[in-house]
Structures are given as structure tokens and as C-alpha cells.
Design a protein that fits this description.
This protein is α/β, with parallel strands linked by helices. Helix content is about 45%, strand content about 10%. The chain is built from 13 helices and nine strands. Helix 8 crosses helix 9. The protein is globular, with a radius of gyration of 19 Å. The structure holds flavin mononucleotide.
């Protein structure tokens, strides 16, 4: 069974962004679900072997904190045995096992993983069935509409196959693979998906404000919304969506950016996050600030966490 979500707004998995420190911040700001960055099943299997030798467990590699719960782990891969094996390794620690069938990045699709699997009907049938049967935790799926604008209804078949196999929730980023991030997400396809299957649907694509979140829910009937780029440097979007859905208004958050940036940095102490990623996140918190572009230049030159802290405290 799916866990209980305290909000209808979820944080999207974003490689290099939805690290455990940022997820925790979003969770504290009211996100109903947070999802790890996509993680290779091969890496999970390999790391588990190495960690076991030192009596350590996989959460040293796929890091998270109890405060994030419910937390979903997103896997990608191209081999069913390995996908199932990796899912079993992470299952004890996470609340949901999410499978990625949406990533358009060439280094993923070249391995026939991510969005490259969209059209492999038989593979998908076997994958979903075996995955759902192998783990006790709910299995969910994240996909795009199809390979290209000319072939953008593949999601229909994948969703049906997934639902029949016991997948419990589907998030649709309503763009084709070829579109990348260009153009607009086609919310009509989210609406169609919601009408097609009876499991919960998470609408995703181009939610940049609480108004947009409500608009997507009203227009498509989706059960939840997933926010990616709109949450970068802007974790209070979750609180704002929650307020807007409840009472029709919300507060501006620019005053909170300094405390978010400081909190984010303090949380990173507990995890193994690349400095370049941390620096990029801190840059995001300057969006909308009066001296934002000047600050971003300075942040870009910072070499240590202490330098970042100094910049935040003196210039935000
Ligand atoms: C930098 C970046 C990294 C992403 N990484 C992932 C990922 O690891 N897994 C995934 O399913 N989607 C990933 N996505 C896609 C997002 O989850 C989301 O589907 C997409 O950004 C559309 O939502 P948005 O318009 O709210 O940003 C990524 C997107 C961005 C911008």
C-alpha cells in the first residue's frame, strides 16, 4: 500500500539537485513525497558488495534521513534480474521503489535504460510483474509521453501494462523524450492518463507556482502534482501550494532565502554531496534576490563550504 502523503505536492527526482539535504529542506517546507535522484541498479549491486565487506549498508551510498519519510528511491537499469536484485537491496530502507522510464539523457538511453524502455512492451510486462512480486514495498513508475512528438501516446500502453502488473502510482512528465525540456508540457496527456487507469496519477511538467499546481489538478484531475525546476532554490513552493489549495492565498518567501541557504548548507554536513552540486544549489537560492546576478558570480568562485557560508551571511 502507498504511504499516507501529507501534501498533494511532491518533489520531483532531479539528478544533482534532489540530494538528501535539499530533499529534507523540501520536506520541512511541506512536500508530500520526496524522491531520490535516479540511481543505477548496477551501482547499487556493486556498492552493496563493497559496503558489506566493511559491515556497512547501502544507505551509505543512497543516503537519506528518517525525517524525509515517506521517501521514494528511484532506480534505473536495463536488466530485469539486476533491477529486481537492486530493488531488494534498497527495499528495507525506503517507502517506495520508483522505476525511471523517463530519463532522456543520452548516457542513459544509450544503455537502453530510462526512456529507451518506453516502447519495450514485453520487457516492461515482465519487469513490472517481477518487480512488484519481488518486493513488499509499493512500486511506482515515472515516464514521459513517448519517444517523439510523432509518437507521443506510448504512455497509454505502458501505463496499462504497469497497472495490470500491480504498479501502484504513475508520474507522467508530459513531454516526449525528443522534446527534452523544450516547448510546453502537454497536460491533456495527464488528463487522458488519469481517465485511462484507476491507480493514482502524479502530474508533472511546468509547475512554477501554486496557481499552476492548482490549475494542473483542476484541469487534469490528477491526484498529486510533482514539482521539479520550480522547487530549485525555492523549497517554500510546497508550503505555498499547500496554503493555496487550502485557503486560496500564500506568502511570498524571498525573506526566507538566507535561512534556506544556511539550512541547506548545514544539512549537507551529514551527507556525501559533491561540492560543485552544493555550490550550484546555493546559487539557486539567489533567484529573485535584488543583487542575485552579482551574488551568483561570487558564489561561482567559492572554493569551500566556509566561503559559501560567508557569502550567504554577508550578502544575502
Ligand atoms: C537537472 C534535472 C535533473 C533531473 N533528474 C531526473 C532524475 O534523476 N529522474 C527523473 O525521473 N527525472 C529527472 N528529471 C526530470 C524531473 O523529475 C521532471 O520530470 C522535469 O523536470 C519536469 O518537471 P518540472 O517542469 O517541474 O521541472 C530531472 C530534471 C532536471 C531539470
Amino acid at each position: 500500500m502507498l504511504p499516507k502523503f501529507n501534501s498533494k505536492a511532491f518533489l520531483a527526482p532531479m539528478s544533482g539537485i534532489s540530494d538528501p539535504a535539499f530533499r529534507l529542506l523540501c520536506k520541512e517546507q511541506g512536500a508530500g513525497l520526496v524522491v531520490t535522484e535516479l540511481t543505477s541498479v548496477d551501482a547499487i549491486i556493486q556498492k552493496e558488495k563493497e559496503l558489506k565487506k566493511d559491515n556497512k549498508i547501502i544507505t551509505e551510498f543512497v543516503e537519506f534521513s528518517e525525517e524525509e519519510r515517506p521517501v521514494s528511491v528511484q532506480l534505473f537499469g536495463n536488466n530485469i534480474d539486476k533491477i529486481v536484485k537492486a530493488a531488494k537491496i534498497v527495499e528495507p530502507y525506503f517507502d517506495i521503489i520508483d522505476f525511471n522510464m523517463g530519463c532522456p539523457a543520452p548516457h542513459i538511453t544509450r544503455q537502453m535504460a530510462g526512456a529507451a524502455l518506453l516502447q519495450k512492451k514485453e520487457f516492461n510486462e515482465e519487469l513490472f510483474t517481477r518487480l512488484v512480486n519481488a518486493v513488499d514495498k509499493p512500486v511506482t513508475l515515472k515516464l514521459r509521453t513517448g519517444p517523439s512528438e510523432g509518437n507521443c501516446y506510448v504512455f497509454r500502453e505502458v501505463a496499462k501494462v504497469a497497472e495490470n502488473a500491480g504498479v501502484q502510482m504513475i508520474a507522467l512528465h508530459a513531454r516526449s523524450v525528443k522534446q527534452g525540456y523544450s516547448g510546453e508540457a502537454d497536460w491533456d496527456k495527464i488528463k487522458e492518463l488519469k481517465e485511462l487507469v484507476s491507480i493514482p496519477i502524479v502530474g508533472n511538467g511546468d509547475i512554477t507556482s501554486p496557481e499552476k499546481a492548482k490549475e494542473m489538478m483542476d484541469y487534469t484531475g490528477c491526484d498529486y502534482v510533482m514539482i521539479g525546476r520550480g522547487a530549485r532554490g525555492n523549497p517554500s513552493i510546497f508550503d505555498q501550494v499547500n496554503d493555496y489549495l487550502r485557503k486560496g492565498s500564500y506568502e511570498n518567501d524571498l525573506k526566507k532565502r538566507k535561512s534556506f541557504a544556511n539550512k541547506y548548507l548545514s544539512y549537507t554536513d551529514n551527507y556525501n554531496i559533491k561540492f560543485s552540486n552544493i555550490r550550484m544549489q546555493v546559487m539557486q537560492f539567489t533567484k529573485g534576490l535584488r543583487n542575485g546576478s552579482e551574488l551568483r558570480l561570487k558564489i561561482g568562485q567559492a572554493k569551500t563550504i566556509d566561503e559559501l557560508k560567508e557569502l550567504i551571511n554577508e550578502e544575502f
